[in-house]
Design a protein that fits this description.
- This protein has 147 residues and is mainly alpha-helical.
- The chain is built from 6 helices and 3 strands, in the order ααβααββαα.
- The chain has helices spanning 5-21, 27-39, 48-59, 63-74, 99-120, 125-139, and strands spanning 46-47, 81-86, 89-97.
- Strand 2 and strand 3 (89-97) form a beta hairpin.
- The chain starts with a helix and ends in an 8-residue tail after the last helix.
Length: 147
């Protein structure tokens, strides 16, 4: 299984991040949008400290580097996230996707779907289903996504 680590992580995972950025966003910015899309609360807001911890772990980035990614993604020409002060603390910030960010996430999903189709579209449905079942069990997470 270790023999698949580099091909899956670097060739598959990083290439998919690049595809999702669509030449408009870097991998880290795409990951930021996807994190907000998938992990924000029901109201769409997510604490900056949680984003900083997650992106810092994923990309081994320092807090100032995460701040730069956030600032770049919130500023023109992107303006895909908005930042407010947390209601409970003037020091803590909250982030959520703007309408432009939500629209871009929709295009990210389309790009990821095209990327995945190019990588696994030739495979039999039974093999894809077995692969998804393996990943769901290995990571303890059900995706409820179509094959």
């Amino acid at each position: 299984m270790l023999g698949y680590f580099y091909p899956v992580h670097y060739r598959f995972g990083m290439e998919m991040e690049q595809a999702m950025g669509q030449g408009q966003l870097g991998r880290k910015q795409a990951a930021l949008l996807w994190l907000l899309h998938s992990e924000a609360g029901a109201d769409g807001w997510m604490p900056r400290k949680d984003i900083e911890a997650t992106l810092g772990t994923w990309f081994e980035m320092s807090p100032p580097n995460v701040t730069k990614i956030i600032r770049d993604t919130a500023s023109p020409p992107h303006e895909m996230i908005e930042i407010i002060e947390s209601p409970g603390s003037g020091r803590e910030k909250m982030l959520r996707l703007t309408s432009a960010g939500r629209e871009f996430v929709s295009t990210m999903i389309d790009s990821a779907t095209k990327f995945l189709t190019g990588r696994v579209g030739h495979m039999e449905q039974a093999k894809l289903a077995a692969g998804l079942a393996f990943l769901e069990e290995a990571f303890g997470q059900e995706t409820n996504l179509p094959i």
